[in-house]
Amino acid sequence: MALTPDRRFSIPTIRRLPGYYACLEHAAAQGIAAISSTTIAGHLNLDPIMVRKDLESIGAAGRPKIGFNVAELLAVIKEFMGWGRLDELIIAGCGDLGAALMGYKGFPRRGFRIVAGFDRDPVLEGVTIHGIQIFPMEKMANLIARLHIEIGLIAVPAKAAQQVADQMITGGVRGIWNFSSAALKVPARVIVQQEDLTASLVILQKNLLKETVPS
Amino acid sequence: MALTPDRRFSIPTIRRLPGYYACLEHAAAQGIAAISSTTIAGHLNLDPIMVRKDLESIGAAGRPKIGFNVAELLAVIKEFMGWGRLDELIIAGCGDLGAALMGYKGFPRRGFRIVAGFDRDPVLEGVTIHGIQIFPMEKMANLIARLHIEIGLIAVPAKAAQQVADQMITGGVRGIWNFSSAALKVPARVIVQQEDLTASLVILQKNLLKETVPS
DNA sequence: TAGATTGTTAATCGATTAACAATC
DNA sequence: TAGATTGTTAATCGATTAACAATC
Known about the structure:
The structure is a homodimer. Chain A contains 9 helices and 9 strands. By secondary structure, chain A is an alpha/beta fold. Chain A folds into 2 domains: 11-81, Winged helix-like DNA-binding domain superfamily/Winged helix DNA-binding domain (Arc Repressor Mutant, subunit A, Orthogonal Bundle); 87-198, Rossmann fold (3-Layer(aba) Sandwich). Chain A has a 7-stranded mixed β-sheet with strand order 5-6-4-3-7-8-9. In chain A, strands 1-2 form a two-stranded antiparallel ribbon. At the A-B interface, helix 1, helix 5, strand 9 and helix 9 of A face helix 1, helix 5, strand 9 and helix 9 of B. Chain A binds a DNA duplex through residues 8, 10, 12-13, 36-38, 47-50, 52-53, 56, 61-68.
């Protein structure tokens, strides 16, 4: 039996794609039809070879001397990133961070829709934030199951995160995007993507430090 | 002249450290004095060897048979991540996302303080969000210079991002944490850390997909 | 002591960079 | 055609994983 081609995608590549996309949108807005990997790389401070490798890995093809067709490339990235499809999410925790995520325009623009919010606080029950209704936490598992939601966002304090995760898993999510600092215990079949904004900030800081004190 | 030891830190390591920290805090709360790399790894679904390597790279030492001293390890991570120091930031764009970042409790807990917000909208002028005052955009460069701010957060729409970045650089920031999707053009000495939340979401999605269709 | 666990050295793996032939 | 740019194959680099000796 032939092995599935094992569609290999690398996480660094995925992280760079939004940059390429922004760059291409910019070019498209100026009516540019074709763009070279060198030009893209120049805008983003990257190696042109890396750009070509990334694009090749997602199935884009360019033409020697000409470069890559802008419209075509936008379409390929959009397809690969799944920005055409619509994916529904739910969010637990509608405090500051949760409310911001509910209103974050990047999600709908990229095909992600938060269909419901959940919060422990009874004051928020029935309230609508950015057009999304908030329900009591007890209803979460049931709603996840009924709507076949696959991904849940956790934006509750660290102390409550494990319990919330358990309820999400009971409902049937397969992936959790965890904005709390808690280290979640989940069954192997469930995937947790940890998001720690302070880590990003520290990386930036350390890079500044490196700049200041070169070896 | 001796080379500076070229303190090598790897970005993946930095991304994992908050997880270790959370795990250690949990252990500390239970009164556990020492913990093995295997235990930490088990909680976070990682390889114990990787945990040891990470800890070694930031200068932590354990003892055979015993493991790592919890309190000591917490201190080493805190020191390495710079969570003890206080670092001041400013933010441009006080809309949904900006306001959320201004209220994000993870920052003060980790020694980051947003000292001022800036927004184009005159309605917001003088308004205080989460205790942080908002100023008109025109005052940004001057305030950055006066307070010697080194890092600026950009949470404005993509279209306005470049102009805002230029003003930050005029003021003298050395690092920009860019939450907009715009590909910023900056001088070589300025470092941009791009944050694209939808990229994280796509990575989670792709991992779910991989789970479903194993080769 | 015996066994568990660290610390270190080597092997593997994957991502980035380089070299260069193919081609429009 | 000549030159620029892609696509591909090889080399390098860094991070992860493995093996094992040191040690409490």
